[in-house]
Amino acid sequence: MRVILVHDDNKARKLKYNLTSERILTFGGAYSNHLRAVARAGRERGIETIGVVRGEEHLPLNPSLAYAAACGMRLTYLDRASYRLKHTPAVLDRLRAEFGDVAILPEGGSNAAAVRGCAELPGALEFDYDVICCPVGTGGTLAGISAGLAPGRRAIGFAVLKGGEFLREEVTRLQTEAYGRAWSNWSLELDYHFGGYARTSPALQAFNAKFQVEEVYVAKMLYGVFDLVRRGAFAPGSRIAAVVTGVPFAG
Fold first, then answer.
1. Which of 175, 52, 193, 54 is nearest to 136 (CA)?
2. Rounded to two decimals, what is the model's pTM?
């Protein structure tokens, strides 16, 4: 059994085919990797970016939002009740009335274009593997990886939020939206969220002391991978690629 860590900026892959407008508005929490990625891409490509943050403004900005602002992203805020309705016409029309002509990306950046970007990830790996694993927040990365797999390989996603059953339907929806079909070469693990999004536990912290990876997404996925290995969930001799996602502050 071999587990290979693969460092890949899945957020950049999600944005590859989404950066087609001069002005982009998108959504995220106060520690959103997605907001940081959009802000960085906007700075690099000369695109105006607007980040709609869940909750109230808190000053000084935390390091994640400070990075986004330093990249030129304009930050605005939605109270939590309105944020839950961010996909509805009423909220979207209000945002367009305030900010004008903008391309609106969903929270996490998961849409058909993002799936096509993430589908290029499996082909970029320069080693043989049987299974590829990734953390799952909104489903776009897993949907793309599954779509890009060669025959005989499979993907496993590890939901990082509690109550992630809906992600099964979401992955299928995203694949169908991107390609007009869905794949059956993937599965979703729901038991490694450690209490919910951005939650942790002494067990997860002790595990991550060895790896020192990002804890909201990556540590949960790695914990799940090694737990499945321990439980004999993989065939003997399996080569497992574990995707370490993340957006660096520097650059």
1. 193
2. 0.91
